[in-house]
Specification:
- The structure is a single chain.
- The chain is an alpha/beta fold.
- It has a single domain (about 10-115), classed as Transcription Regulator spoIIAA (2-Layer Sandwich), CATH 3.30.750.24.
- The chain is about 40% helix and about 20% strand.
- A 5-stranded mixed β-sheet has the order 1-2-3-4-5, with helices on both faces.
- The radius of gyration is 13 Å and the shape is globular.
- The mean pLDDT is about 90.
């Protein structure tokens, strides 16, 4: 099992849950794993930040890579459980304009099924 993230699928919705902060120490490994996970087309993907309390500039790079890769394969990302510190970083960098951020898994599931 991966100590940085878990990949699941439920009702044809892919789910990626990060298990730790995303920083310089783990961003390379996470990006490598995400390339394999995101190599399918036309899917809804819920990205769960429940266990992420901090991201550094490398973590921001992981998020941007996620968004770019999802667009390449026509996937739709839904970010959930993003804390206020990370939301602030996303606001300042304007990356939040490229994302769908919802509060809970239930909201994300309803949103994904409506697409």
């Amino acid at each position: 099992m991966n100590r940085y993230c878990i990949f699941n699928e439920e009702n044809n919705i892919k789910i990626l849950r990060f298990l730790t902060n995303i920083t310089v120490e783990n961003s390379g490994y996470i990006k490598e794993r995400l390339e394999k996970f995101l190599s399918f087309e036309n899917k809804e993907i819920i990205i769960d930040f429940s266990d992420v309390y901090f991201i550094d500039s490398n973590g921001l790079g992981v998020i941007i890579s996620l968004i770019q890769r999802a667009r390449k394969y026509n996937n739709r990302l839904i970010f959930i459980n993003v804390n206020s510190l990370i939301k602030n970083i996303l606001d300042i960098t304007k990356v939040n304009r490229l994302m769908n951020i919802l509060d809970t898994y239930e909201e994300a599931k309803k949103y994904a099924m409506a697409l």
